[in-house]
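Can't paste images in this forum, so I'm doing it all in text. The chain is below; anyone willing to post the predicted structure tokens underneath?
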Amino acid sequence: MKIGFIGLGIMGRPMAKNLLKGGYRDLLVCSRTRERVDELVRCGAQAACYETVGRECGVVFTMLPNSPQVKEVMLGAGGVASFMRPGSVFIDMSSIDPTASREIAAQLAQRGVGMLDAPVSGGEPKAIDGTLSFMVGGPQELFERFKPVLETMGSSVIRCGEVGAGNTAKLANQIIVACNIQALAEALTLARRAGVDPGLVLRAVRGGLAGSAVLDAKGPMMLAGDDRPGFKIDLHIKDLANALDCAHSVGAPVPMTAQVLELFQWMRQHGEGEKDHSALVHYYEFLSGGSLTDAQQD
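Text version of the structure:
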């Protein structure tokens, strides 16, 4: 089976490499950045255009920034879907609005093409080591057929319902992550202002109820002043904006989500949108004066 893979950014590049490592050597890749395609070709993939991917691949994966990009790549003029054969399958691993997933699936169904929405959580580190969490929406039969492929890129692959359910679960995930990052930044700022070593506080709370994957992954980054993007603030803004749209459409109250989104927007307006979402701590450093890095060096 030939596999098409479109989108070789921070997440897509290591995910495509893991497909190759998992034995899926008939991999055709597309990206707007030629250097990224060349990197995958050196690993054993084949460079291809949308037409070639659509005509030759039984399944096409995308890992793109947001709904407009997915729609353009798949359904735009000369998009991949216009070349796909009936019976082929589209698996979108991007994090997009669930409504957009359902719209794309409906148009593909008219062509006889099946679809799963399968967004991921875990950021770049888990994309590299192949331990992402997949939240999948779509027909049970397609899920069962392609679950082994997804398992080459992730350690958890859970079907949450029909198309759109995967992205609904991902929005829930992004709310939890964002609110945890905000709480962590506030807590470590409190420790610093109270004259207690934030690093020791992090160690002390890690083994209790406050312990979490967010704390383990993002706390050390905040303490070290490491804001290199594993997941960019700009992308989290996109996800939270989608979460608000979805929440408003179904009548779900999400006041904490709205607040964290505003803080991320402040970060973007101050030129930090390309930094890791753990850089939200800079907002609290701005308000309180000083930094967690300075506290570590005292």
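The chain has a mean pLDDT of 96. Residues 5 and 143 are 18 Å apart (CA to CA).
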